[in-house]
Amino acid sequence: MNDEIDRFSMDYFRLDGKVAVVTGANMGLGMAYAAAFAKAGADLYIPHFTGDVAEITEIVESAGRKVAFLQGDLTDSSYMDRVVSDCLSTYGRIDILVNNAGMSKFGDFDTYADEDYRRCIELDLNVSYFLGRRAALVMKKQGGGKIINIGSALSFTADKRCPPYTTAKHGIIGLTRVFANELGQYNIQANAICPGFLATEVNRELREDPAFYNKITDRIPAGRWGRLDDLMGAAVFLASQASDYVNGWTINLDGGFTTTV
To answer: How many domains does the chain have?
Structure first.
């Protein structure tokens, strides 16, 4: 039998013994990524800004894995340094980084405040570069790792009233390719997940507007908004050995939204 075929198994998708850093994973989509990794066998390290950590703690520990936290502001360079050093002190390694933390603030283009634009670009794009580079230095010493950047359906399209978010998410695609090009020689793969419209608590009010909800739903070939579990398999794939030859690409988890007009 061909050795290359014979050695493949579903264990390629396991994350046993791995340590995953998922920013902002105490809530929302980040919680789904962290939960998926825990179910696949990884321990978690979660930098977070505000909010309760009880739910994600229960999820990770119920999967038999460990989780540690560090609260702070990712736009602070010294905090990013502490994230890396504290994770290494806690677990001794960093195998996976998910640059999930972000923000959006809607506003009219003509009057959008400069400081709001800069803040959004800093958190949604620049932090992914700075923290990704810090984590990559650790991964290089370890002999490999995985970086997953979080884009959006707005990485490929544009919408009104959210200029910095759209700009940042377009930038995430370029940044992912930069990481892939710079780090591939060190067995570090960098890819992006681009979620579409997911039915979460954050956008409940938007979904309760029939005109907006129907406009979006009608453009999704799947005919529905996404769920958190729609994200989890792709996250595990990109974090695992199964994706070792996937580098610099994106997975659009949008039900086909970005394929339509």
So the answer is: 1
